[in-house]
Design goal:
The complex is a heterodimer. Chain A has helices at 30-34, 54-61, 76-79, 87-97, 154-157; strands spanning 9-12, 16-20, 69-73, 105-108, 114-117, 120-123, 135-138. Chain A is globular and about 50 Å long. Chain A contains 5 helices and 7 strands, in the order E-E-H-H-E-H-H-E-E-E-E-H. In chain A, the strands form 2 sheets. In chain A, strands 1-2-3 form a 3-stranded antiparallel beta sheet. In chain A, strands 4-5-7 form a 3-stranded antiparallel beta sheet, with no helix packed on it. Chain B is 6% helix and 32% strand. In chain B, a hairpin with a 5-residue loop joins strand 1 (8-12) and strand 2. The radius of gyration of chain B is 13 Å and the shape is flat. The chains are: A alpha+beta, B mainly beta. Chains A and B meet through strand 4 and strand 6 of A and strand 1 and strand 3 of B.
Chain lengths: 163, 66
Amino acid sequence: MEHTESGDREYSNGEITVFWRPGKCVHATTCYRELIEVFNPRKRPWVNMQGAPTERIIEIINKCPTDALTYKWVDDVKNQQPNLKNDKIARALEFANKPTVKPVTVQVMRDGPLVVQGSFKVYDANGKELKAMAMTSFCRCGASNNIPFCDGYHRKIGFKSED
Amino acid sequence: MSEELQPVEFRVISGGPLHAIGKFTIMDMNGKPIEIEKEAFLCRCGGSKNKPFCDGSHKTVGIKDF
């Protein structure tokens, strides 16, 4: 059985099931910037499976930089087709197999966090190294409950970055 | 001499900015790259007038740290 954490959710339109694991989200905001009709963090439930055709939903899920959003076909035969493996798995494997140092980019998100990718380390104020990762997002608004990381709280306080 | 790429270090400064040490690229909101050669201090309080960089505003804005 797959390990699930509380807060994990599933959404289906009968064709595919979308899995949402909030613990893995780094708030890159790709999903709702590209498909607000389906992924709307202001609505409950925040995923509306009727908002777009299945192919479009899959396209956006494949752009999610982490496994926060994944999907499976309801018709299990389709899950066996190798061409349906999403490129996230390939990227993860590539990262695991090549322990080379990757250049770091820090993307500034409007009214949101700093999204960091590449080879980097994070240390807290006491010099303790925090969990290693290939991608994360740092709070810019000061309101996160998971400092120094973003937890999406900038939306609740209406953070305006104006930069 | 070829310089070997090192992982970038992000160090939290208590009550202050994020100290990024190393060579990396910042993409601003317009997609314009800013090349950082050695280090940068990145705003964590939301109050800087020079975002994404720190301008010392945290001293008046204040940062909660856990």
